[in-house]
Write a sequence for this structure.
């Protein structure tokens, strides 16, 4: 290495391909996008963006895990995969049940009940960290852009994983802002509050079921 840090940085062509492929994946609605949109619609753009930042933090944890080789352990161990899978599914189901059991606003003048942004951030972070599919994704996707001749593979994993997490925050925040634009329609119309709450709770339960049905890699 001779102290040359630049060798760790992927080439411009590699970065361009990685960013392009990442954006295609990130802009395709998945569980994380559904979660963020549900937050934005139920509580506004701040909640959507907060969720996006929290999910990005969780993705960064997966990038660190991939760098340390922990993701490989999760993929190789059926028991570890199952534990993380069911923990994530249970957490999503718990959020869904709490949402379904919540109450609607009694009058059009009263603001709808809101959750602190700190709680929303904590929930989004936990949901992202407890998603074993993200760990599998990092091990399946990032290695395609890693070149051992450019230096230590671990550092390249960290650089590319961090870049993916940052890109995810940008695209997910855009979804959160767009979802927040619909939040005004829900809060201004009392009749829409109950259907929106039921839809949001059902989405969380659906994400929990999706997580529970995840199959370990073969």
């Amino acid at each position: 290495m001779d102290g040359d840090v630049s060798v760790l940085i992927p080439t411009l062509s590699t970065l361009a391909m990685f960013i392009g492929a990442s954006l295609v994946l990130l802009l395709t609605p998945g569980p994380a996008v559904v979660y963020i949109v549900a937050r934005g619609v139920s509580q506004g753009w701040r909640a959507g963006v907060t969720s996006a930042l929290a999910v990005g933090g969780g993705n960064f944890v997966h990038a660190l895990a991939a760098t340390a080789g922990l993701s490989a352990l999760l993929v190789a161990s059926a028991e570890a995969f199952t534990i993380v899978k069911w923990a994530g599914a249970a957490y999503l189901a718990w959020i869904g049940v709490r949402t379904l059991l919540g109450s609607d606003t009694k009058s059009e003048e009263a603001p709808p009940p809101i959750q602190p942004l700190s709680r929303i951030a904590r929930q989004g972070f936990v949901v992202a960290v407890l998603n074993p599919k993200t760990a599998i994704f990092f091990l399946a996707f990032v290695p395609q852009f890693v070149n051992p001749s450019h230096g230590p593979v671990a550092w390249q994993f960290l650089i590319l994983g961090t870049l993916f997490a940052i890109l995810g925050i940008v695209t997910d925040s855009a979804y959160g802002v767009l979802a927040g634009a619909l939040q005004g329609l829900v809060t201004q119309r009392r009749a829409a509050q109950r259907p929106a709450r039921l839809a949001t709770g059902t989405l969380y339960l659906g994400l929990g079921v999706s997580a529970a049905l995840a199959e370990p890699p073969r």
User: Anything to note?
Assistant: The chain has nine helices and no strands.
